[in-house]
TrEMBL record:
Region (Disordered): 307-360
Residues binding ATP: 43
GO MF: kinase activity
PROSITE patterns named among the record's database cross-references: PROTEIN_KINASE_ATP (PS00107), PROTEIN_KINASE_DOM (PS50011), PROTEIN_KINASE_ST (PS00108)
Keyword tags: ATP-binding, Kinase, Nucleotide-binding, Transferase
Lineage: Bacteria, Bacillati, Actinomycetota, Actinomycetes, Kitasatosporales
Statement: the UniProt record of this protein carries the keyword Transferase: yes
Domain Protein kinase: start-end pairs: 15-287
InterPro entries, A to Z: Kinase-like_dom_sf, Prot_kinase_dom, Protein_kinase_ATP_BS, Ser/Thr_kinase_AS
Stretches with biased composition (Basic and acidic residues): 323-336
Protein name: Serine/threonine-protein kinase
Transmembrane segments: none
Keyword Transcription: no
């Protein structure tokens, strides 16, 4: 997200603008927030479109139709779209607000991490197919399915920009080069040739998007629009040797030149997720680890955006959208906010019940693992340690005292608040220290956040002095969700006053430190 510029508005409708999300042929997209705390994407069309009354009329109809995708479409389809919440086609510059999806576009994901693994592509394809089946059942055609219009969230993919491309199609039917409005390389052949555009055109674009996700390259390569469009119409797609099996056959069928030879979205959904549908594929964890970290961080960063004192004057809602403003928040917001409220902190204002200001940054860090946990996704580094053990001595300190290299002053259970190297709070740590010689596991540690996420580790003794233990910490059991699982050097140092200074070199865990006191004190 980029900061607002001097020429940007501060408020649009009932939404305070927080930054720029992007720009395109239709206009600018801002990140906004309502007075109730709902985060939205506000799309404002270019002024020259606002001068065309035909555009305004189609914009109004298409936004209302897009609202039906979320309200009237089958449940298995609407969950994979970003709902239209509010709009004003009669404003000096028309705008529309949709639910904000806290995740990168497929374009960003592929550019950063390359081709996606097959389970991710299958879940992506199943979700988008269900979305298209619902949209087409309403008599709508998207017309501009492309990687940048597919967003990746913790709980599945989202297809965005319904109606907007279609609204502009009536006003600007041709570009300067005489080509139909759309995205070269992802437009169907019939769309390029100016023939009738049906639901089958969306299926072709869908196939091109899946090919991009699976291979990391567009299926119709080229350096200019003219070359891309020629290849789409006349040449077979380039899918590469790595894409094989059923997934390749499915994509090839979608990229058939003739609309009649392409499968329907319902057929595609059944082929990709025959048992539980797309939701079943997503539930088992659909994002690879690098993307999961990026998506999770973006999701919880929303909670760090301050909205105190914002009370805009409400504006009339477009007919058909009454009651649409500020519906239930996305799943990641509900989960994160519930966890924060359980700790006594308001997720919007960052104040506790007594009204004292809290550090919003700490709220974000401890919730990172919670959000990933709610999405039942793959492991994401938050706290040091891992596994399913418990913070208890492996053996009795008394039984090991005779051969122990651990001074008796260290023995027992210690606990304290963890801070990362930048001072950010990051949960608590409980360490149980037992006797033992060099090379023995003498510490069992539990890291926790909000009593929901726990990471367990064990540490073997490397060296000991009268005031300091140096240990090597490893995962205690199978890696658990939200834990780094790294092998790291840690130290415990007696500081006087019956306190231990704890320090870890686990970079993924934020090189945490803590001042520990004996349990019960």
């Amino acid at each position: 997200m980029q900061p607002l510029r001097a020429e940007d508005p501060q408020v649009i409708g009932a939404y305070r603008l927080l930054g720029r999300l992007g720009a395109g042929g239709m206009g600018l997209v801002y990140l906004g927030r309502s007075a109730g705390g709902r985060t939205v994407a506000v799309k404002v069309v270019h002024p020259h479109f606002a001068l065309d009354e035909q555009f305004r009329a189609r914009f109004r109809r298409e936004v209302a139709a897009a609202r039906r995708v979320a309200g009237d479409a089958r449940p298995d389809g609407r969950q994979w779209t970003a709902p239209v919440l509010d709009a004003d086609p009669d404003a000096a510059v028309p705008w529309v607000a949709t639910g904000y999806v806290a995740g990168p576009s497929l374009t960003e994901a592929v550019l950063e991490t390359g081709a996606q693994p097959e389970p991710t592509v299958r879940a992506l394809g199943a979700g988008l197919a269900e979305a298209l089946a619902a949209v087409h059942a309403l008599g709508l055609v998207h017309r501009d399915i492309k990687p940048s219009n597919v967003l990746l969230s913790l709980d599945g993919p989202r297809l965005i920009d319904f109606g907007i491309a279609r609204a502009s199609d009536a006003t600007a039917a041709l570009t300067e080069t005489g080509v139909s409005v759309g995205s070269p390389g992802y437009m169907a052949p019939e769309q390029i040739l100016g023939a009738e555009v049906t639901a089958a055109a969306d299926v072709f674009s869908y196939g091109a998007v899946l090919a991009y996700a699976a291979t990391g390259e567009p299926p119709f390569p080229g350096d200019n629009s003219a070359g891309l469009l020629y290849r789409v119409v006349h040449e077979p797609p380039v899918l590469g040797p790595a894409l094989t099996g059923e997934l390749r056959l499915l994509i090839e069928s979608c990229l058939a030149k003739s609309p009649a030879d392409r499968p329907t979205p319902s057929d595609l959904a059944r082929r990709l997720a025959p048992a539980e549908g797309a939701r079943g594929l997503v539930r088992s964890g659909w994002l690879p680890a690098p993307l999961l970290e990026r998506v999770t961080r973006r999701a919880v960063e929303l909670l760090d955006l301050e909205a105190d004192g914002f009370s805009p004057t409400p504006t009339p809602t477009l007919p058909g959208l009454e009651g649409a403003r500020d519906p239930a928040r996305p799943a990641f917001e509900d989960t994160a906010r519930s966890a924060v409220q359980g700790a006594g902190v308001s997720p919007v204002s960052g104040r506790d019940g007594a009204g004292e200001k809290k550090t919003r940054r700490s709220r974000v860090l401890v919730l990172t693992g919670i959000t990933a946990l709610a999405a039942t996704a793959a492991a994401f580094a938050l706290l040091p340690g891992n596994g399913n053990g418990s913070a208890k001595p492996a053996t009795s300190p008394t039984a090991r005292a005779a051969t122990s290299s651990v001074p008796k002053e260290f023995l027992g259970t210690w606990t304290g608040d963890v801070h990362q190297s930048d001072g950010t709070p990051n949960g608590t740590v409980t360490a149980a220290v037992s006797g033992g010689g060099t090379g023995a596991y003498v510490v069992r540690t539990t890291y926790s956040a909000l009593n929901v996420l726990e990471c367990h580790s064990k540490a073997k003794l490397l060296s000991a002095t009268a005031t300091e233990l140096t240990l090597e910490e490893v995962s205690d059991g199978t890696p658990a969700l939200g834990c780094t699982g790294n092998t790291s050097k840690i130290t415990f140092t007696l500081t006087g006053g019956d306190r231990l200074a704890y320090a870890s070199e686990d970079a993924a865990g934020g090189r945490p430190t803590a001042t520990l006191s004996r349990s019960g004190q």
